[in-house]
Design a protein that fits this description.
The chain has one domain: TIM Barrel (Alpha-Beta Barrel). An eight-stranded parallel barrel has the order 1-2-3-4-5-6-7-8, surrounded by four helices. The protein is an alpha/beta fold. The longest helix has 18 residues. It is built from eleven helices and eight strands. The chain binds 1,3-dihydroxyacetonephosphate (13P).
């Protein structure tokens, strides 16, 4: 089967009113290849503006949501609020949230379940740190992170798994296509054995960590690499080439 190629742009905590306008204007000029889905994740403050000005063929995601619909949770936003604004996606469990904001895998699982229930699709991020790779515990780490999500959800239709090795994020040190393929294959096998063969076959597993126009095409050739979650390069003109990496 062919899984729709997925390219996400995670702007992280970057942008300004004028930069957001430039980025949206540029994205609106890109021709999106058929069979490729593009989703942009601006900072929460700019989401509404981006959704209102970006072509509808490009999706919009939040970078995080909370596990409740409303209430006394100062500083948080809910998937229900995204729905209200016509936003379809959220990133959850990004390593920067796990590391800096101490989010546990269980919490990421909880938030994933809540977002899906609210009708928001989820880009669920997992990935090992450098010392974990060097200790040969990559498989244990990423499958435990995936299990914490699998424990909380039944339906994987609206989930994209993003494998983002922490050592590759923002470092310019991209995983080789072989390293990415090896982990993606392991994750797909885990889904086949622990969720179902159908979910393993259909779920997109995308790669993130120093993806650029220079390395995207080679990574995209790998059988289990179904797209990318792009940080730094999603703020640059080369994002256009990454969107077209499968062509
Ligand atoms: P970079 O592409 O800047 O390495 O960031 C990757 C990432 O964290 C995307 O979510």
């Amino acid at each position: 089967m062919t899984r729709t190629f997925f390219v996400g742009g995670n702007w992280k905590m970057n942008g300004s009113v004028s930069q957001v306008k430039t980025l949206v204007d540029n994205l609106n000029k890109v021709s999106i290849p058929s069979g490729t889905e593009v989703v942009i994740a601006p900072p929460a403050l700019y989401i509404d503006r981006v959704r209102q000005t970006l072509n509808k063929e490009i999706g919009v995601a939040a970078q995080n949501t909370y596990a409740k619909c409303s209430g006394a949770f100062t500083g948080e936003i809910s998937p229900e609020m995204l729905k209200d604004l016509g936003i379809d996606w959220t990133i959850l469990g990004h390593s920067e949230r796990r590391e800096i904001f101490k989010e546990s895998s269980e919490f990421v699982g909880e938030k994933t379940a809540h977002a899906l229930k609210a009708g928001i699709k989820v880009i669920a991020c997992i990935g090992e740190k450098l010392e974990e790779r060097e200790n040969n515990t990559t498989t244990q780490v990423v499958t435990a992170q995936l299990k914490a999500i699998a424990d909380k959800i039944d339906d994987w239709t609206n989930v994209v798994v993003a494998y983002e090795p922490v050592w590759a994020i923002g470092t310019g040190k991209v995983a080789t296509p072989e390293q990415a393929q090896e982990v993606h294959e392991t994750l797909r096998k885990w889904l086949a054995e622990n969720v179902s063969k159908d979910v393993a076959e259909k779920t997109r597993i995308i790669y993130g960590g120093s993806v650029s126009a220079a390395n995207a095409a080679e990574l995209a050739k790998k059988q289990d690499v179904d797209g990318f979650l792009v940080g730094g390069a999603s703020l640059k003109p080369e994002f256009d080439q990454i969107i077209n990496a499968r062509q």
